[in-house]
Amino acid sequence: MCVMRDGNWKLVAAAFLASQCLTLVGSSAVQMAIAWYAAVEASSGAWAAAMLVAGFVPQMAVSPFAGAWIDRRGFRKAAIIAADAVSAATALALAVFLATSFGDMAALVAASSVRSLCAGVQMPAVQSSVAILVPEEALLRYNGIVSAVQNVAQFAAVPLAALTLSFGGISSAMLLDVVTAAVAVGVLAVAVKLPRVEATSCALSQEKAGLFEDVREGARYARDERAVGFVLASYGAFIFLSVPSGFLVPLLMERALDASYAMLAFAEGAGCFSMVVGGVVLAAFADRMKGVALPLGLITYGAGSMGVGLATGCPLFLVGLVVLSAAIPLVQAAVTAHLQSFVDPAMMGRVFGFMGSMYAGLMPLGSLLFGLLADGAPAWTLPTLCGAAVALFGVMFLPRMISSHRREAGYSK
Question: Which residues in 104-231 belong to E strands, given as ranges?
């Protein structure tokens, strides 16, 4: 990648990370507040399904096209600021509406849809920006730091959402997102200057193509570049197969262990803390883990998932949960860093757009499918079988990643 990067990239990258974490705190708190408010006010499965669709489907639909537009125009910083601004404006409009009228579930669904669209624009813009902000040799460490800091931010958003809902109501929770987004946009606008990327022949040849053709060209690129396609396929499989041992943990604990609310809360906290630790460890040992972070993360997650499924008591269950939680940053950071390192700059937005669509599509699909299967299958089967499949992906990935790392380091002839 031909990037005109100055010597102060660490300060600029730190400011960029700070702005994104501020956005994450506010948006996560609002997302939780909307979900909790909808559950209490509606207490309806139909509205819960509508909220799920509104939260994921718009992002899945728009993300590849947003990535193609970013590749074409290169307005990464503008796209991030616009997405933050529109999301905050939506939260402000919802706060005013809810403060001046009775709660309306349709308004919550509409707001969730707009915020999902903004997430679909922001994700490829952010990830392609990191690829030009951070040197290739530092990408794995940077993404490990990002994972740790983001998990801390998401953990902080839980009590923040609870406090604002309890003492200020849903309108106050919406205003929290407006404040954090305003500060984040200010930091991004003032303190972050993205390096200039020289146009490649691939980018220049596509200037006259339409947006749909750009997306198709990105799909062909992901298909033809085997390394990129294999990483995306593995990431998609991981997202789908991680649902039983991730989002269905409360159900598994209640069925297999007759868990109390206190036990569920402790498990949630332990998992979040473990993800922070996983990100810190990856950041600290990134140089040693470049060739093995992804397969190691997949194998470790699979082992933890199987431990969760086969646990005979709460202590063993928590051990498995801590192990798989620590592996999540390894997988996410390694996938992101791998793509940021190897994808053609002219295709970066589209590839991360596809990645965002995969997450937004496969997560609710897995929740629906495995949720239905969980009603008819023994509690231990789904996390055990899915964990074994994830570990198998890791074993398949190990020789490929080691060979690739050796070629990069100049060991192969």
Answer: 196-197
